[in-house]
Amino acid sequence: MRVHVVSDVHGNAGDLAKAGEGADALICLGDLVLFLDYADHSRGIFPDLFGTENADRLVELRTARRFDEARDLGRRLWAGLDVDRDTAIEAAVRRQYAELFAAFPTPTYATYGNVDIPRLWPDFAGPGTTVLDGERIELGGLTVGFVGGGLRTPMRTPYEISDEEYAAKVEALGDVDILCSHIPPDVPDLTYDTVARRFERGSRALLDAIRRVRPRYALFGHVHQPLARRMRIGSTECVNVGHFASTGRPFALEW
């Protein structure tokens, strides 16, 4: 069995269309939407609406962790547009989802990232794409569990939930051979982004499950430039499958 795994696609539909080549299945760990490309500020929903100069400023404020000022900037910019904020964002997200879901090979098993909008996925997921969140499947004789979304942060991205709700989804999986999530377990080397120079939120519930259940693999994304891309926790190999938007390369897993 050969499975390719991607995460943090962020609009890279071209490479996503090729990500399943040579594999029996594709697993996607979320963050399909590109709201703002931190490497190229001209790409994404935000610069399409407000221009690259404002995108530069927003990235500057967020990188400095001046989140209140970043939100104030956003409010001023939206107030200057003659459109409803939620309507404009949803229309842009729908355009991206139409292209990205069409690029998924069959079969694909996917869960949500923190920047995704779960309620829209049923409109785009075709019969070859199975969406899982707090659920598990059998794949090639192994049990694979999926936990989508992220934990609450000052960034207030679309799919952030409470620690308690997230832990309940992890608990619902039970024993699994492969634990798939969008965010990493709460380990400093796995949650620190060396370019953004900050810790992203990892899950204590995932870490506890890894220690208790001891899956063969724990696969995740979310942290684009991690201090450590992989490490062992007990007998479990923990792997950040990579920032697919920039690499265009899936992580290959065989058993």
From TrEMBL:
Name this polypeptide is given: Metallophosphoesterase
Pfam families the record matches: Metallophos (PF00149)
Gene3D superfamilies in UniProt: 3.60.21.10
Native organism: Streptomyces wedmorensis
InterPro entries: Calcineurin-like_PHP, Metallo-depent_PP-like, UPF0046_metallophosphoest
Highest taxon, organism lineage: Bacteria
PANTHER family recorded: CALCINEURIN-LIKE PHOSPHOESTERASE DOMAIN-CONTAINING PROTEIN, METALLOPHOSPHOESTERASE
Annotated ranges, domain Calcineurin-like phosphoesterase: 1-226
